[in-house]
Amino acid sequence: MMKKAIIFNIQRYSIHDGGGIRTLIFFKGCPLRCPWCSNPESQSFKPEIIRRESLCIKCSSSSCFACTNTPEQCPTGAIEKVGKEMDVNEVLKEIKKDIIFYDSTGGGVTLSGGEPLSQGEFAIELLEKLKNLGIDTAIETTGFSKWEILDKMSNHLDRILFDLKIMNKEKSIKIINADIDLIKDNFKKLVKKRINIIPRIPLIPKYTMDDENIEAIINFILSQGIKEVHILPYHQYGISKYKSLGKKYILKSLIPPSSEDVERIKEKMTDAGLYVVVGGK
């Protein structure tokens, strides 16, 4: 039987996350719980309902969250189901609409999420088919999975955008529910396989930007012979999504890093011998 996965978005014409014009496939579900997550709809492995009160015309209730309409019944699209079970061929059908742009721009397909490794068998089958079509492939990942899955997947990837967040084991487990030792071990194994791996560092005030954490990240990256790193400054673009899901965003008062703070960290990494890209590419 053809494998299926829960996909919550297919974003076309992206110019980030892997180079060229890309199609981003967003897998639903993630084992991490980063407080700053900008895609809360990606966390659960099950389809969810989001409610956008800004689109609600109160046709059957005084509040969108009190409305009993289904997404199909909502006249304005204020109520929407997020997450759809798709098989590999269904995803490929959407990807093939963009093939014309890949060759001319050096683009391709990037698997994102959520965490694609959590639906690894599907992702492996999809990547195999993409490589058979000659399509450039990439993945955005936390690296938090069994090595066997990542190992198989890496055989069909042109590049891996690999998150490094909190390097202290105790803090990593407590704050984001991830064992950094497992993540670092997977990173090292990918390096040994000579996979094109690009570390990405989210710059989150009070969580990842302290000198001790940044220095630990720099030392780890350099120890693996990696020369390029992407830094991703924190933003608050996802706050409205929490409200739409009926969830509380606990970092609402957190102020994004200043341009001076970002530049300071960039200079620290550059002085250590790293080529730094702000915002990814």
TrEMBL record:
Domain Radical SAM core: residue ranges: 16-275
UniProt GO molecular function: 4 iron, 4 sulfur cluster binding; lyase activity; metal ion binding; oxidoreductase activity
Signal peptide, first to last residue: none
A Pfam family per the record: Radical_SAM
Cofactor annotation: [4Fe-4S] cluster
UniProt entry keywords in alphabetical sequence: 4Fe-4S, Iron, Iron-sulfur, Lyase, Metal-binding, Oxidoreductase, Pyruvate, S-adenosyl-L-methionine
UniProt xrefs under InterPro entries: Aldolase_TIM, BssD/PflA/YjjW, Organic_radical-activating, Organic_radical_activase, Radical_activat_CS, rSAM, rSAM_sf
Top-level taxonomic group: Bacteria
Matching CDD domains: Radical_SAM
Membership in a protein family: Belongs to the organic radical-activating enzymes family.
Name of the protein: Pyruvate formate lyase activating enzyme
